[in-house]
Queue: 3 jobs
Job 1
Amino acid sequence: MSTMIGDRSTSDVVARLRTPEGRDEWVYCHSQILINKSKYFADRLSESWPTCQILDSRNCVEVYCQEHDFDYHITVLRLFYVNTGCSISETCHGVKNTLGVLQVAVNLGCPGIIATCVDFLEASPWEEAEEEEIFKIIPGLGSLAEPILGRLQPVKQTTIVKIFLSATMLATSVLPPTMVDLKTSAQEQIEYMLTEDDDAPLLTADEDLKLKVRQSFEGLLSRFNNTVKSVGEISEMHKFQTFLVDMSWACQILAKLELLKDFVENWIDASENIVKAVDQVSQSEQEDSLETKIKVIEITSKVLEAIGFRNVILPTVKRLHGVKIWLPFVRILKSSVDSLTTDENDCSVVKIDGEIWQSLESAFVSIILALPSGEQAGIISEWLANKHIRYPDLTEVFEVWCYRSKVANRRLADITSSNGMIKML
């Protein structure tokens, strides 16, 4: 006849579980089983332990625990009586339950149960909260934690780079609609790998990695250029809108890798075609047109900011081209968004982060101030006569231009000769 937990007739020891809240439960057990399964009980049931009490003519071992792990203590006591031939799945019921049991098993010194729990955890997927809990328990496991740690060990940098490049190829490639979710996931993980949050970025780009990344993005930029040139049919319009999502992501990633120059130059070169493509979308799809314009302006804001604050250096002709294309587009869009009505909840139908408008205005001012004075004059003249003069506000440009123009002759007199050539020192 097998020995059973709770069998008072054969029990010779009481495991008394107590909590600070006053919960007190007696579990009738058998000393030989407790001694064999748990170091905690073996110590307290030994002759050298002075505080083993006598309760109901039996030895009594008190176990103090918290309310949240009370049931796990009961489970561990029951597992002492489980046949060693039982499968892990019969012993462990889910990761959360196994973690609770494991923590108690560590505290009570139960190597058999610890090993069973570790085997189960090693073979099971974990939720994020469960993983954090595992990290709390690991210090008490010693060498028994090695199977679990295998999943948590840092990976070699060469492996990380290989995965990063593979993900980049996937994220920048042409995929069928059925694989859009996979592409989006790859893009999200690439961004996460490069983001500095509580932890450092997963990899640091060297010149070799940057070269390979540039090659991957070249294809994306080339396909985008071809698309904006051919927007006309409905299918091409949808492709253009999809490309804008990829381009927005590409701009963020290339900025993190300090590879924004190719993207910025490409966007400026394609600006005229991009604006035409947006107009085509506006004429055919009124519902989506404003969302398309907003996505375009979000990307343009990052491009102009990179130029305006000299993160990317472009020739004068390209900077001027960017201003001439995007200044009218931005001022008209700002006016359009500001004039939109509000819904019944008094919330703007379309919301654009105010920082984007501020960033665009600052970028325009910075770019225009770096243009030749004659080009500045043309832009200022057009701005003063425009009905959208309030945005972007080029007052600073106007003031600086007036000052420079007024003092130009006096300043230049000292550094130029009679024929207008700059004097050599």
Job 2
Amino acid sequence: MMMMMEGPYKYTRDGNGKVSRVIRVGTRKSQLARIQTDSVAEKLKELNPDITLEIVAMSTIGDKILDTALSKIGEKSLFTKELENALERNEVDLVVHSLKDLPTTLPSGFTIGAVLKRENPHDAVVLHPKHVGKTLDTLPENSVIGTSSLRRAAQLKKRFPHLVFKDIRGNLNTRLKKLDEKEDFAAIILAAAGLKRMGWDNRISQILWPEDCMYAVGQGALAVEVRARDTDILEMVSVLHDPDTVLRCITERAFLRHLEGGCSVPVAVHTEVKNSQLYLTGAVFSLDGSDSLKETMQTSVAANDKSSNAVDERVQRVGVTADKISGEAQDSAERLGVDLANLLLSKGAKEILTVARQLNDAR
């Protein structure tokens, strides 16, 4: 096997003299990130048997700072910055992320070239073995629940006032270990998607439906980030786009961006595509959940065939490039997010989020 560089591209030649392009895929080092990246790499290899894929794993700030709540670090691109730096330096050709880790505004020169079919976007309760068979409702008074998410804590404090919520950090393996091996937590809250991808479905004691806890923007979806100018790579990954997931995530990201929300404020969503209608429910909460605003709006995302053929220009919508999906439907999705954010802002969302941010900073 021989490696060659030609311009920014890397090639390999096997024993039979066959040359194939090497596509370098960047990922975080955690087991979940590797599983997610491998699943994307497999799909790409199936669709492009002639390429060679090389996985490049690296640690990010978010992986290194484990003693501080994410919302306190105050950095928007905690899990993405190092990966984007590698993309910029041409050390990798594409990066696989959990979409919920990607800020709603990407640095210039980057774009999300694929949003894959969404896994279950809801949150899940994982109980300490001694509480097996219980639910959040039936856990004893003052049981401690671990979550480092302001969004989860705000909604669950309001819904389950008999419980106490404390920060827990670390990757999935670390959190489960903290839960099982100590007596600090009665349960922890994690994204169902991550548990499923790790093959740990059997640890899910309860799925939290929207009436208990709405999910984070982009939760459960994987995104492939590329250099916006790399048209060949953009073309290659674009077939991985799942149209419904793209529309749902565009509307969610537009909602969050217009609210100016990030990790440090409790913002939650729920979306659905049904009969060519896109439904978006969005909410903002005070840190203790006592103050909240929640509204639902919908729009048609039926593709008008005439317009979908004409989508050739590389338009980004909240960081997403999806040339093969009706531009009209994407515009409607983006507008829906902005409209719902405006509705909540008109009812006082700004004040709720400003107080939440200040209180969180002061903790």
Job 3
Amino acid sequence: MLIFNNTTSSSSNFLLTAFPGLELAHVWISIPVCCLYTIALLGNSMILFVIITERRLHKPMYYFLSMLSAVDLCLTITTLPTVLGVLWFHAREISFKACLIQMFFLHVFSFLESSVLVAMAFDRFMAICNPLEYATVLTDMMTLVIGLVICIREVIFMFPCVLAVKNMSFHEGQELSHPFCYHPDMIKYTLSNNWISSFWGMFILLYLNGTDLLFILFSYVLILRTVLSIVAPKKQQKALSTCVCHICAVTVFYVPMISLSLAHRFFSSTPRVLCSVLANIYLLLPPVLNPIIYSLKTKMIRQAMLQLLQSKGSWGLNVRGLRRSMD
């Protein structure tokens, strides 16, 4: 008697899912998704470019902003191939190794974004609460060291999680809830005892993102206390206005992230389509909104971007004029 086994080792494949139950509308759904990806790629690339090229933006505040844009850019590129592959070509199948690599980079860049937001909160704390020490503490070298420590920290914490998943056995051809590989989604289909990987994933989430969020909240408590001690209302408003963009970026990142984590780990009856929508909001909303927020609310970034667009426009007019004169 031939027995078919639907289990396999770590060489199994997974099936990605974009929006369960809306497969016939994938082509139409792909239009706004493509627009969002385009905004994220162009917006973050432009912010990176203006910070690199404009010498007046070579300050710690803008260095941290460039780190945030770089992370958002990498996070967008990490999910772009599989999301559009599912929506456009119904390319749902993904090998275990490819899924593991995507999972690693997705979570590393996600945790990196959280850590960069902490660094930006520290920058605002130093600028408002200790302005006299700001230039001596946050030097270019210190900013570089903070960036390197952040990167090393995330990679060190993610490697054990990846190794634990790599040594697990999974059911063959299981449907994931998203068009990308997300750790809590993957370990639901393991054959072996997944408590180690699940515990480590929860520990990383609580330790890294939890401590990051607490540090940000504590920083703003100190900032608010300092601002309230300022007598002049205009100075109070000016101090708080420098924090508006960062507060928006923190809200845009943490609210979808916490909602998605709770939906996966504590609410098993959550509809799959809701999990899919939350996951896409979590990964697309920060890269799309962060460039818009900072370009609209930060005067120097806005001016630099307008100058860049004007210079490109004048260059294009000059090229057209030369072509006409040659004709």
